[in-house]
């Protein structure tokens, strides 16, 4: 009798595990932000299949000014975008309703970004605020999120000041990204113009949710121009890519007490071309880091991550197959990497070798005007 009960319990456990495995989404919605100064009309939605890397067009929302960066709310019902407008006009942020099963996306409202040239947007898990990086004016803005998903007027704006050593690129502050720490106790944002990585405490219930700790910033090498950030899946390490230096900084993350572990170049030995490092992401299993370099390189650089100390070891560099690999994304299954080449109007799909981290180009490709941001969200 005991053997029979054990067998039944074992069978139940196996079935439960199989159900959990089958519950993992096999299809996702791929949302594509673009610049609308060319052939693009706005934000596009494609269906993505994680077993094959195949894509299929679903929907789009037109008439949106330069939705160059987007983010998706945790409940999967709302999407937010910047409207990246230059120095001569004020920028804004837009809220959209989203139906993942159909890929349907519709504009809800817009709000001023309280700055110019907003280039990055993120939203907290509780859907209380969105955070905007205004590149041109060098300001970070906080906008509240209403219960219906719409955006309210900005409740806080942090204006950076200063300049860097590169007179043509660092004549003033240029805020480039705004990323919440995994526990959402801190918001980190980069300033390309002043060569600083800034960190602020975040408390969603306060009228002004951001406040500076001590210290409130970290310096990088003058002229490197910090751009984008990525946390390791376990939250222990923070990785920063610098646009003008083509260098990745590795930090032992501990809020304002974080310590730099190393700085490693993503450039090939003897490289003399233009540098335009752009985006950085880590595989879902935490084993590999990927970063893109635009300029004259137009490539994706792969590093292995040491699980004991977070340090990086070069693996390979791979052509992005186009010009201006501004942004890329790794699908949640970890099987594929998609890179958006802004200047050549295309998105290429690579299969990831989960043992080596190396990339293999597939036959999947999306032709779309000036793609600049890729985001995945469950379709099921």
From TrEMBL:
Keywords: Carbohydrate metabolism, Glucose metabolism, Signal. It holds the Pfam family Lactonase. SUPFAM superfamilies: C-terminal (heme d1) domain of cytochrome cd1-nitrite reductase (SSF51004). Belongs to the cycloisomerase 2 family. Gene3D superfamilies: YVTN repeat-like/Quinoprotein amine dehydrogenase. Residues 1-18 form the signal peptide. It comes from the Bacteria. Coiled coil: none annotated. This is Lactonase family protein. The keyword Signal applies. The lineage of its organism: Bacteria, Pseudomonadati, Bacteroidota, Sphingobacteriia, Sphingobacteriales. InterPro entries: Cycloisomerase_2, Haem_d1_sf, Lactonase_7-beta_prop, WD40/YVTN_repeat-like_dom_sf.
């Amino acid at each position: 009798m005991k053997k029979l009960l054990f067998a039944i319990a074992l069978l139940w456990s196996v079935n439960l595990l199989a159900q959990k495995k089958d519950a993992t989404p096999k299809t996702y919605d791929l949302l594509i932000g673009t610049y609308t100064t060319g052939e693009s009309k706005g934000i596009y939605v494609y269906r993505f299949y994680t077993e094959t890397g195949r894509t299929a067009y679903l929907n789009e929302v037109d008439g949106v000014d330069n939705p160059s960066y987007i983010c998706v709310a945790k409940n999967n019902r709302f999407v937010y975008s910047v409207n990246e407008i230059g120095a001569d006009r004020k920028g804004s942020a837009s809220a959209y309703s989203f139906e993942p099963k159909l890929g349907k996306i519709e504009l809800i409202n817009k709000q001023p970004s309280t700055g110019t040239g907003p280039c990055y947007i993120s939203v907290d898990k509780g859907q209380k605020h969105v955070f905007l990086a205004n590149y041109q004016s060098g300001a970070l803005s906080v906008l509240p999120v209403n219960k219906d998903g719409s955006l309210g007027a900005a409740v806080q704006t942090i204006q950076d000041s200063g300049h860097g050593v590169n007179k043509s690129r660092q004549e003033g502050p240029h805020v480039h990204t705004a990323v919440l720490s995994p526990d959402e106790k801190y918001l980190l944002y980069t300033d390309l113009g002043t060569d600083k990585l800034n960190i602020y405490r975040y408390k969603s219930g306060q009228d002004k949710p951001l406040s500076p700790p001590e210290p409130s910033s970290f310096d990088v090498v003058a002229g490197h121009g910090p751009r984008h950030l990525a946390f390791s899946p376990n939250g222990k390490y923070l990785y920063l890519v610098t646009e003008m230096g083509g260098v990745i900084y590795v930090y032992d993350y501990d809020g304002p007490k974080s310590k730099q572990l190393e700085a490693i170049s993503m450039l090939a030995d003897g490289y003399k071309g233009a540098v335009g490092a752009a985006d950085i992401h880590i595989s879902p299993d935490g084993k590999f880091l990927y970063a893109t370099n635009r300029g004259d390189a137009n490539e994706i650089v792969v590093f292995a991550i040491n699980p004991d100390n977070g340090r990086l070891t070069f693996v390979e560099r791979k052509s992005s197959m186009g010009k201006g690999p501004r942004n890329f994304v790794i699908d949640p299954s970890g099987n594929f990497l998609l890179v958006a080449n802004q200047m050549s109007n295309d998105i290429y799909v690579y299969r990831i070798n989960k043992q080596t981290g190396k990339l293999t180009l597939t036959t999947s490709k999306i032709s779309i005007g000036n793609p600049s941001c890729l985001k995945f969200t469950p379709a099921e």
